[in-house]
Prior knowledge:
The chain folds into three domains: 5-103, Probable tRNA modification gtpase trme, domain 1 (Gyrase A, domain 2), CATH 3.30.1360; 121-210 and 367-421, tRNA modification GTPase MnmE domain 2 (Four Helix Bundle (Hemerythrin (Met), subunit A)); 213-357, P-loop containing nucleotide triphosphate hydrolases (Rossmann fold), CATH 3.40.50. It is 46% helix and 16% strand. It has 13 helices and twelve strands. A hairpin with an 8-residue loop joins strand 1 and strand 2. It starts with a strand and ends in a 7-residue tail after the last helix. The model has no long low-confidence stretch (mean pLDDT 84).
Amino acid sequence: MRETIYAPAGLVGRTALTVLRLSGPRTGEMVAALAGGLPTPRFASLRSLRDAAGRVLDRALVLWFPGPRSYTGEDCAELHLHGGGAVFHAVSMALTALGARPAEAGEFTRRAVLEGKLDLLEAEATLDLIEAETDTQRAQALRHLSGEMSGVAEAWRASLLRLLAHQEALIDFPDEDLPPEVEAALRDGIAALRGDFARALAEGARGEKLRSGVTIAIVGAPNAGKSTLLNALCQRDIAIVSPIAGTTRDVLEARIVLEGVPVTLLDTAGLRDTIDPIEAEGVRRARARLEEADLVLALSEDDVWPDVPDGIVMLHVRTKCDLSPTMAGADVAISAVSGEGMTALLSALSLHVRNLAGLSAAPTLTRARHRAVLLTAEAQLEAANRAEWPELRGEHLRQAMRDIGRLTGMVDTEEVLGSIFGEFCIGK
Length: 428
């Protein structure tokens, strides 16, 4: 029998209320023991909670959710306790004495998946919604939680099932006069599905950026205005600004929001050759971080641009334009001190962020797990398209269908489930 678990659904301490959640086969029995009986399902009831010795632990609102009409699909309950830590501890000890145990991270949602209340995509969207920092991230998480991406995955699986049916017909009736259109339709279907996967992977790269955020590195020679620009973009003093070259020795990070997307700004050490070992380490770190960034702001006050490896997306920013109006090779000219050109720079940054994060209403892949699964399924379709023997092509199609099942959790392993739900907070 599965154990009955409990956990706080939020903070414990000096708060007005702490909600303690329970789930499992003995939930009703335990709540009845604490509250002197079960309340009407899904109606809040004010009860005195007592331990086995009859001591009153708290006056609390009690809600009872008999399965399967509950979050986890099991019998569930909520105890709305007063927020003191001593209250939560006392009620927890009483539940432990009755045979319950504290829940592990993500265990409530994991049980919801195992009971068919959510699929894996919806469970991951639950975590994304909890962790959403911006309204755009919230909207994306809600789309996934509503089942949009699950519907796309199911449509892919249904298409694979139809393709497999056509393939089985070619295998089972090789001597029959099957019309040539069957073979043509099969190959056309494989090609169309591969196109769907390719578009989802391209869109998914942007969905991952929306979920995790975009990184922008600010680079340039010493005293090019990097720290001044960081402070201007953040609208507060984060970096020390000094006319002394080499003031910034390490990489400073700051967070802002552009177009509803979290953006991490990196202020880096000035790029130059130096014999100072500390500054040299700062330059090494700056070069390492700019190679990992999604966008590099290359700053120059004299139109001599920093040496940056090929393939990196860059925006050339001419700084201190209030002192010199020239703009050779620059995409935008600014003065972070006077504010000149800052509106144009923000518009350019917003455009880059929008392109990186997608910001479309279409459901997208949002995690490395989604990308890995779809890449594997796409490889199986490619192998099916190349296969000369119909039996081998059928096996590749079956494997692709199993891969798509891993997106929603129809096919998965305990190791994968443990990795996913280990990211959740206790109580969810």
